UniProtKB/TrEMBL annotation:
Transmembrane residue ranges: 38-60, 74-94, 100-121
InterPro entries the UniProt entry points to: MamF_MmsF
Superkingdom of the source species: Bacteria
Compartments, record wording: Membrane
Keywords on record: Membrane, Transmembrane, Transmembrane helix
Protein's membrane topology: Multi-pass membrane protein
Stretch forming the signal peptide: none
Region (Disordered): 1-32
Name of the protein in its database record: DUF4870 domain-containing protein
Length: 139
C-alpha cells in the first residue's frame, strides 16, 4: 500500500456547519446539571478576565443551550473590561499619572468580579442573567 492510498481516509472531514468531525460537535450534549454548572463557571471565571468564558464558549457552545447563552453573555461583558485592564496596567507604569490608572485597575477588577459573582449565583439557580451594561460584541 502506498502512502497516498491510506492517507485520504485520514483527512479530517467537516460537517455542513463547518465543524470538524470528531470535535465537540459530535460530543454528547450536556445534561441539565452540567449545562447549568458550565454556565455558572463562565460567569465566575470573570474573576480572572475573559479567558475562562472564552474557553467555555468555544468548547461547550454546541453542547448545551444554557451554557452557550450564558458563556456568550459573560464573554461579551468581560472581554472589553479585560482589554481596559491591560491598557490601564500599561498606563499605570507612567510615573506622573500612573496612580490614577492603578486605581482604575482596582475599580475595573472589583466591578468585573462582583458582577460575575452575582451572575454566577443566578445561573447556578437556573436563571439566565443579563448584565446591566454589556456590549453585545459576539452574537
Amino acid at each position: 500500500m502506498s502512502e497516498t492510498e491510506g492517507s485520504s481516509d485520514r483527512r479530517p472531514r467537516t460537517t455542513s456547519s463547518g465543524h470538524l468531525e470528531g470535535s465537540a460537535a459530535s460530543a454528547p450534549p450536556l445534561t441539565p446539571g452540567e449545562d447549568r454548572r458550565w454556565a455558572t463557571l463562565a460567569h465566575f471565571g470573570g474573576v480572572v478576565g475573559a479567558v475562562p468564558s472564552l474557553i467555555i464558549y468555544l468548547v461547550f457552545r454546541d453542547r448545551g443551550p444554557f451554557t452557550a447563552q450564558e458563556s456568550k453573555e459573560a464573554l461579551n461583558f468581560t472581554l472589553p473590561l479585560t482589554c481596559l485592564l491591560f491598557v490601564s496596567y500599561i498606563l499605570a507604569l507612567i510615573p506622573a499619572i500612573g496612580w490614577i490608572f492603578g486605581i482604575a485597575l482596582v475599580v475595573i477588577w472589583v466591578t468585573m468580579t462582583l458582577a460575575g459573582l452575582v451572575a454566577g449565583i443566578q445561573c447556578n439557580k437556573g436563571r439566565p442573567y443579563r448584565y446591566r451594561l454589556n456590549l453585545r460584541l459576539i452574537n
